[in-house]
């Protein structure tokens, strides 16, 4: 049952209507208890740890009688639309050494999946130029109209997300 077996990268909706992404399932070093490590996809993008049994537990109907959701955290679609995901502005990325904007653009060109392209594009926020947007649009075979840089960046992100949606549907059939 997927509800009782969270996996890294999966998205869960809390019964109070907040979206989270599972980072990993860890083992408490002292007690051996399994903990779900997850990140909020809103606000300050805080990272939390919660015991697995509590994470997958049903909503307490006595305490919250009007909640429609069955579980405290309900597994949801793998790629929630951008309208449901806020992106950190200026948040620190905990990852490999930071690539230059040009290296990121080359990585974007070489990425095998649209998810990879999307993640690279997110890393480029604040560094992308009009020329880069034009080059990435050519690779995707789309046209991003001239205009404010932020607007063009958002349009490119939307294109990549749209391609990704159909890439997932195409490969899952």
Short description:
This protein is of the alpha+beta class and 173 residues long. It has five helices and five strands; from the N terminus they run ββββαβαααα.
Please state how the strands of the largest beta sheet are arranged side by side: 4-3-2-1-5
Report the average pLDDT across residues.
Answer: 81
Radius of gyration: 19 Å
Q: What fraction of the residues are assigned to beta strands by DSSP?
A: 15-25%
SS content category: alpha+beta
**CATH topology assignment of the largest domain:** SH3 type barrels
The termini sit apart by 21 Å
Helix content: 25-40%
In CATH, the architecture of the largest domain is Roll
Tally of individual domains: 2
Q: Give a quick account of the main beta sheet: strands, pairing sense, barrel closure.
A: 5 strands, antiparallel
Poorly predicted regions are 87-96, 169-173
Assembly type: single chain
The geometry reads as elongated
CATH superfamily of the largest domain: DUF1653-like domain
Count of individual helical segments: 5
Order of helices and strands: EEEEHEHHHH
CATH structural class of the largest domain = Mainly Beta
Number of strands: 5
């Amino acid at each position: 049952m997927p509800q009782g077996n969270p996996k890294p990268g999966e998205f869960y909706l809390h019964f109070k209507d907040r979206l989270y992404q599972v980072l990993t399932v860890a083992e408490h070093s002292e007690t051996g208890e399994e903990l779900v490590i997850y990140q909020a996809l809103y606000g300050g993008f805080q990272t939390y740890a919660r015991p697995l049994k509590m994470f997958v537990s049903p909503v307490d109907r006595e305490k919250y009688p009007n909640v429609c959701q069955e579980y405290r955290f309900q597994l949801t679609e793998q790629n929630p639309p951008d309208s449901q995901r806020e992106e950190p502005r200026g948040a620190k990325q905990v990852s490999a050494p930071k690539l230059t904007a040009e290296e990121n653009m080359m990585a974007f060109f070489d990425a095998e999946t649209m998810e990879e392209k999307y993640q690279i594009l997110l890393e480029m926020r604040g560094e992308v130029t009009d020329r880069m947007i034009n080059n990435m649009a050519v690779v995707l075979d789309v046209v991003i109209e001239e205009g404010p840089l932020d607007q063009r960046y958002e349009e490119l992100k939307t294109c990549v997300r749209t391609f990704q949606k159909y890439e997932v549907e195409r490969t899952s059939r």
